[in-house]
Amino acid sequence: MKALYYDGEKAVYREDAPMPQCTPNRSLIRILLADICNTDREILKGYRPDFRGIMGHEFVGEVVESPDASLIGKTVVGELNEGCGTCIYCRTGREKHCLQRKVIGMSKDGCFAEYMSLATHLLHPVPEGLLPEQAVFTEPLAAALEITKQVHIDPALNAAVIGDGRLAFMITQVLALTGVSLTVIGKHPDKLEMFQPYAKTALYDDYFENGRIRALSADECFEYVVEATGNESGIHFALDIVRKMGTIILKSTYAGAANLNLSVLPVNEISIVGSRCGPFEPALKLLQEGRVSFPPVELYALKDYEQAFASRAFKAGFRMK
Ligand SMILES: [Zn+2]
Ligand SMILES: [Zn+2]
Fold first, then answer.
1. Does 284 reside within a domain?
2. Separation of CA 146 and ligand 2 centre (Å)
3. Are the C-beta atoms of 20 and 28 separated by less than 8 Å?
4. Which of 37, 105, 243, 276 holds its CA 20 to 30 A away from the CA of 253?
5. Is the domain of 44 the same as that of 30?
6. Bridging pattern class, strands 222-227 and 26-35
């Protein structure tokens, strides 16, 4: 079959990849669409140095073989963390934290291929009427929804999202649904335009004077600050703009170490919450009901992966079938 491999240095396109093995609790999925995530780009920069295998973790597919006969022929999306099933994390609904977990496209074969196998319990049927082109946003949207699972957002207060990329856009749409007064702070006026139906927008530079953060009044600061920039400056800026007793939610996963003065956390009683993958069912529901919407994915054939990875579109991906 056709597949896009990571060989430890770069992406390699193959047409002779072996079909995935379908062990008893797993299902075989024919991939229809697969999207490139920033994590895939990070992998090409060395984020997962020990990984060798098929890339990709955001997909919509069709179940070809499954121990659950009701799934065969269904269009599905799937969660990416496959736990051991027996440890304390797996037994208490926290499979994504299993120490033995395999993550598709990061530590086991992923979805940039014609077929993939995945633990059957991780599959979620796509509701009637939701097109694969929108359903493919389920995984990143679920990650945005995780914030509302972790932090009670008081809609009478205010929140900021730092960053103007894809993840920030999904988080913004999710937080806008709560009714909280929302501001998106980014570096690119052109990208910020897309956020204006959902939030106030502000430029990062407007918070600085002579290269330093300017003195901010309490009114200008935020109760909730979501950091979604993908770089270290984001957490420093989050600490600058969060109110006393406020909450910072860290969404970007960057590999570097951040040099922070942690004394402000006890003094100002700031909470920091790390946030990763989230619930698929509510994400599918929001997409189906059209309560969130995203620009169309720019689709390529798998062999044209170089163009796909270089794309500046909101989301680029592969059409497999
Ligand atoms: Zn992703
Ligand atoms: Zn486990």
1. no
2. 20
3. yes
4. 243
5. yes
6. unpaired
User: In total, how many domains does the chain have?
Assistant: 2
Whole-angstrom distance, CA of residue 218 vs CA of residue 237? 15
pLDDT in tens, the chain (321 residues): 999 999 999 999 999 999 998 888 999 999 999 999 988 998 999 888 999 999 999 999 999 999 999 999 999 999 999 999 999 999 999 999 999 999 999 999 999 999 999 999 999 999 999 999 999 999 999 999 999 999 999 999 999 999 999 999 999 999 999 999 999 999 999 999 999 999 999 999 999 999 899 999 999 999 999 999 978 788 999 999 999 999 999 998 765 677 888 899 999 999 999 999 999 999 999 999 999 989 999 999 999 999 999 999 999 999 997
Centre of ligand 1 to C-alpha 140, Å, is 6
Which tokens hold the place of 60?
């919509």
Ligand 2 mean position, distance from CA 100 (Å)? 6
Distance from residue 79's CA to the centre of ligand 2 (Å): 15
- Helix, strand, or coil here: 208? strand
User: Are 262 and 303 in the same domain?
Assistant: no
Q: Say whether both 200 and 247 belong to one domain.
A: yes
Whether residue 165 sits in one domain with residue 123: no
Say how many Å lie between the CA of residue 92 and the centre of ligand 2.
Answer: 9
**CA 26 to ligand 1 centroid distance, Å:** 21
Distance 309 CA to ligand 1 centre (A): 14
Same domain, 65 and 105: yes
Residue 227 tokens read as 């950091």
Domain that holds residue 205: 142-274
Which conformational region is residue 56 in: left (phi greater than 0), alpha (psi within -120 to 50 degrees), or beta?
left
